[in-house]
Structure formats: C-alpha cells, structure tokens
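Example record

Each entry pairs one chain with its bound ligand, thiamine diphosphate.
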Amino acid sequence: MNGAESLVRSLLASDVDVCFTNPGTSEMHFVAALDHVPGMRSVLALFEGVATGAADGYWRMARKPASTLLHLGPGLANGLANLHNAKKAGSGIVNIVGEHASTHVALDAPLTADIEGIARPMSAWVHTSLSTAEVGADAARAVQQARTTPGRVATLILPGDTAWTEGGVVAEALMPEAPEGPDAALVEEAAKALALEGSLLLLGAGALTEENLALAGKIAAATGCTLMSEWANPRTERGAGRVAMPRVPYPIDLALKALEPYGKIVLLGAREPIGFFAYPGKPARLTRPGAEFVPLATAAMDTGAALEALVAATGAGATSALIEVAALPDLPPLSPLTPKTLAPVIANAIREGMIVVDETVSSGGHLPEATRGAPQHSLLQNNGGSIGYGLSVSVGAAVACPDRKVLALISDGSGMYVPQGLWTMAREGLDVTIVILANRAYNILRGELTNVGVQNPGPRAIDMLSLDRPTLDWVSLARGMGVEATRVEDTAQLALALAAGLDTPGPVLIEAVM
Ligand SMILES: Cc1ncc(C[n+]2csc(CCOP(=O)(O)OP(=O)(O)O)c2C)c(N)n1
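Structure tokens for the complex follow.
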C-alpha cells in the first residue's frame, strides 16, 4: 500500500467519507487511491472556494468533517476565503494539500510555494507529512483536530513522494479532546445575574442546537431574562414549536438600541458584542458602557453542559419555554420584488426540515420576522463576513443531507464571487433551490458610504457599487453550468417559481429581479 492509499483508508477509519476535490499532478496518487479504496464519496469542484465552502456546509449539517483535496499553494490559496468563513463558524475541515516531492521543493519549480505559510492563518493545525509510514497517523491526527470543539480547520500537506512510495500504514481514529464543562462559580454567578432586571442570555456559535434552545428557553421563562443570539450563527434551529431567538441586529444603530437595556449579560458560546466595522463617532462595543458580562462558556467549551448546569442553578427544570407558534405572514398583493415584499413569499415557501442558506445581505432584513413561525428549518449564516460562501455551503449541506431540501438565498453580488458551485450541484443532482436576489448592485455598500460619513457620493463612487453595465444574466449563467433556471419579476411569479423549484428534485435557480 502506498502513502496515498493509507491516507484514504485512514480518513475512512476516522469516519471521514466525503472529499471535495480539485486536484492536480501532485495529488494524482490520492485520486488513483479513490479508485482502489471503496467508501470515499468524491465530489469535484471547479474552483477551490467551492471545495472549502462545501466542506464548511457539510460540517454544519453532518456534524462531522469532510476532507478537501487541493493543489499545492495556489489551490489552497484559492480556497482561503471560504476557509476563513469556516474558521469563524467553528467548522471542522480536513484539508489535504499536495506538495512537490521533497527532492523537488529545493529546485523551486513553478508551483513551489510556502504551503504551510499559506495554510496557517486559516488553520488551527498545519502539518507536512515527513514519510510514507507516517501519513496514516498524520491523517488520524488531522481528523482529531478537525473534530475538536467547536470544530477546527486542519491542513495536512502531502509531499508527492510520501504519497507514491510503498509502506503506508493505516491508522485508527483518535478521539478529540472532550470540551471543557462550565466553571461552577460562574454558573452560580450567571444564575444570579439572570434573576436581575435587565439581564440577557446571549447565545452564539454552536449553542443554537434544538436541545440547547429548549434549555435556554426554560431559563428565560424561569428567570425573566431576555434571550438573544449573535447576529450571525453557523446553524440555528428555527421555526414553529422552537424557542424564539431574536438576533442582535447588524446595523450599528439598531444593534446599540437592541442591547441598550441590558446591564448584565451572560455569554454562552457568544463573544462580547462588537460592531462588524468601526464607524466614525460610533462606539465599537455594542453594549452600554458599564454593562457587566458573565463568560459562562466559550464556543470551544461544552455549551450544552453549561446550559444544563444553568437550568439546575436557576431551578428552571420544570418550567415550560416560550415557543414560536405556527404562523405565516399573509402573501402580499401582486407587487414588485423588494426586501419587504419577498419576505412573506419566501416564508410561505419554507417546508418542514428545509435547510435555508442565508446570503441575502441587504435583501434579507424582513426575513427573520417573516419566517419565525414557518415550518421548522435549519438556518445557516456567514460568520466570517467574506461574501461568496452561500452557493458552496449549499453544496456541502445538500451532500450531508440528501433527504432535506436546501433553499439558498443569495444576493447577486455575493453569488458572483464563487458561482461554480452551480456546476457541482448539477453534476451531483443536489437538491438545492437557489434564489438569486438580483438588485444589480452592491446595495449594502451604498448605505455603508453614508455610515462612514461620505455625504452626497458622486457618480464614480455610485458606479463602483452598481452591477448593471452589463446586467448579469443569471438564467444563462446557471444554464451554462447545467442548472435549470427562470427569471421572475414580481411576488406572484416568485411564489410560483419557488413552488415549482421545490417540487423538482435537483437544482433549480430563480433569478428574482428586484
Ligand atoms: C470577499 C469579500 N469581498 C468584498 C466584501 C465587501 N462587501 C460586503 S457586502 C458587498 C456587496 C454585497 O452585494 P450583494 O451580494 O449584491 O448584496 P446587496 O448588498 O446588494 O444586498 C461587498 C462587496 C466582502 N464582504 N467580502
């Protein structure tokens, strides 16, 4: 057995059985090993950002890592923006990056690069395999790292000679370190804080599981504290019958207002709230001056155990949580598509068990309220702020959950960063309905111009935020990548197209012109 085969077998032994690939010459032995070793589903991506974003989406839904196969330094570099998002989301990913044979690195061939240097900023763990015999054990360690709470990006670099030389050894899975439980004194402090007027239990990161929400809901009902989650969360279980969880708003003024009432804030998987950006004359911290925090559990800790301890400390065990009732907004009368008119149409299209990927940027402001009483769904958001994550994350979510429909809500500007996921959706027959919110602008940045203090922006500034010259034709883009597509221009057409798309197995794209 060569090193590449020992790698594939070791990944499988660690229960990593999906690989999002974009290989080159240095990864050919890994590609060949996929043929010899049954059990690894390999999914081809035509750009590395699709592979890394797909691995992120896969982790969020499967709760186990996928691997990526990337070509040397440049291939990894192409995947970095979505690895950044994955890192911020706490997603576990095992990147396998090919490297020249050790004898070749010294010759500075065209593709030679500092792969470890490129990997490090987005990876919690980076390692280059030194010999064929070690490759299997390195793979097991990479998976162990990726599985460490809340989930980590692990990058294993595989020199060609370690892959092609005989002498590979398959390694058994290694258990990740168990996450730390809460500190008993902090649990008591948190229970006391939440009993006070003006207290907030702020959840984030991996804390928004169905079980955790139920526990948090009990605590809120027993203590009278407010529940809120961070603005963006890797995965939130939402909808009718689930505990209501408003989010800290994105716009700085709304965020300041929403957090103003709270003087005692218990953090559970969440950080002290800060603005996405700095704005002239506005505070960076979103909480009121003097607000006190109880850091009950970080995202790297056992947030479930912390909530259970808090339920016990607040005596909330027998309390019933306040849950969302099943309610859908009325469909609007026939109207052009705006953020306000499209929200009820989308809310009415949500089906039980759906995975909703949110990259709506400025078009999604009315969705949280419109969809709160919709059938139960998982909401995936971008924690890293690097746009172009949604189509790729949808690929991974659909691979992880073939029995669940994915609804990808993607702004046109964001979609153009990494559109190649559409081709992978078509090739794999992934069950994704994509709505492109085609406002033909970097609309949010128009508001940001004003927010940073630019008065009366001129035509050249406006031109930098407009996507019209020429107008993007998403129907043709999608069809060119094998995805059936349609264009809609009002609420009735959107409702019809959504129903048709969701009834069709496989990917369908709807360009919603706003
Ligand atoms: C990788 C990356 N490049 C640039 C930005 C800056 N940026 C933030 S929002 C945005 C425009 C978003 O436009 P679109 O997706 O069409 O949404 P809209 O604002 O129109 O709702 C840009 C360019 C970013 N966040 N990430």
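The radius of gyration is 24 Å.
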